[in-house]
Amino acid sequence: MLEEKSDFRVTTTTEKSDYSTVIDTHQVLAIGNCLEILKDENIVPRNKIRLTVTSPPYGLGKDYGGIYSDKFNLDAWLDMIGEVSHLVYEATAPDGSFFLNISPIPDYKSKEIVPLDAYAFPEVRKQGFHLRNKIIWHFNNMQNPTRRLAGRWEAVLWFVKDIQNYIFNLDKIRVPYITIGDKRIKGTGRNPTDVWYFDRVNNMTKAKLGINFPAVYPEPMIERILKMSSDRGDWVLDPFLGSGTTMRVAKMLGRNSIGIEINPKYVNMIRRRVEPEKATVHGRTDFKIINYGSGTSSK
After folding, report:
1. pLDDT tens across 32-86, in order?
2. What Rg value do the Cα atoms of the chain yield, rounded?
3. pTM for this entry
4. 226 lies in a domain?
5. Domain count, the chain
6. Is residue 169 part of a domain?
7. Which residues constitute the domain of residue 255?
8. Is 10 within the bounds of a domain?
């Protein structure tokens, strides 16, 4: 499925911004259960994925079109996280990363807050990954409960396969200095830290964009992650693709991508968002759909 690439760089330096070379990219959408598809090396090869970024269902009762029930059982959820993390680890390049976005949730019955990131950490680490940062994704637009403080953050756990060697393009994600005009400040910007502010994609915005999906990543956050932990021409994986944001941003940044989505209902929406007929500054891209289990594919 993937073209052979033997020049994976083991580095913690910055990516060179050379856009003079055209890179044609490939976007692969696999429809089916990620626990089955991730095992298929013809679709997700071993040791080739530079970056995985994903957000699994985690018991908020969201509607996934009747294909998946979002009712929560912690033990079953942890088993799923462990299995997915194991398969992602096998697919990850030696200097690759795994970004796992999960949120604290209220228990369905008692309403006690369950810190899912704390539960997920040992399951993912058990597979061989190392935690490099716990990133706090802070936002404002959300519900306001009356019997507890309003939740305004989710966790993004950044794991690496090798704690000594991994891609970290800091210069690609620097943000403006807080102090303006101080002559003692040098460089192009500051480290964005491990607390990130990005607005959530609300229902009004989703309606304007024609996105019919319960939870949608803000594109600027995925852009930061892809720039930070992958280079042009790399392969990016999202096992719980959802609305297709990871593939869309991967294409716009000159990355190849594999997205796995269990619900065929979202194929047309994802295809429209990726816009395969349009070229970017990086080159042209093709879009392939694999209906896993049926043995068919289309472009």
Report:
1. 999 999 999 999 999 999 999 999 987 666 555 566 666 778 999 999 999 999 9
2. 19
3. 0.87
4. yes
5. 1
6. yes
7. 25-298
8. no
